[in-house]
């Protein structure tokens, strides 16, 4: 499925790092940064999460709620948050159902090998649940600047 700007963001419910359900539509009235990333504690994903952490205040002041999502387990998310002192929610999508809704689970190529994996993508969702922007070429160390 390919989403585009102006479409309503697909609603979902999945578990956060503490096992609590997170439902996207519960965030109506707020701007949401929903970022899909491949794996906790890898160099690129850590750089991206730390960039968002270091600029969390600016993002919050601009009215954004940050939700990170990957196929990692709740426990891995907890470790990643604790290790990097992340001030935002990470969502576990082990069955990749949310990835499928957003079209971020795709065939990837690395060193001549093909495999299914997460395509690093960020969706900016407005207060009405409509996709305002899609960042496909995420710069992990400058991600906040791309959002703002």
Automatic annotation (TrEMBL):
This is thioredoxin-dependent peroxiredoxin. InterPro entries: AhpC/TSA, Peroxiredoxin_AhpC-typ, Peroxiredoxin_BCP/PrxQ, Thioredoxin-like_sf, Thioredoxin_domain. It holds the Pfam family AhpC-TSA. Thiol-specific peroxidase that catalyzes the reduction of hydrogen peroxide and organic hydroperoxides to water and alcohols, respectively. Plays a role in cell protection against oxidative stress by detoxifying peroxides and as sensor of hydrogen peroxide-mediated signaling events. Monomer. SUPFAM superfamilies: Thioredoxin-like (SSF52833). Belongs to the peroxiredoxin family. BCP/PrxQ subfamily. GO terms for biological process: cell redox homeostasis; cellular response to oxidative stress. Residues 3-148 form the Thioredoxin domain. It catalyses: a hydroperoxide + [thioredoxin]-dithiol = an alcohol + [thioredoxin]-disulfide + H2O. Residues 1-11 have a biased composition (Polar residues). Keywords: Antioxidant, Disulfide bond, Oxidoreductase, Peroxidase, Redox-active center. One of its GO terms (cellular component) is cytoplasm. Its EC number is 1.11.1.24. The active site is at 45 (cysteine sulfenic acid (-soh) intermediate). It comes from Marinomonas aquimarina. NCBIfam families: PRK09437.1. It comes from the Bacteria. Residues 1-20 are annotated as: Disordered. One of its GO terms (molecular function) is thioredoxin peroxidase activity.
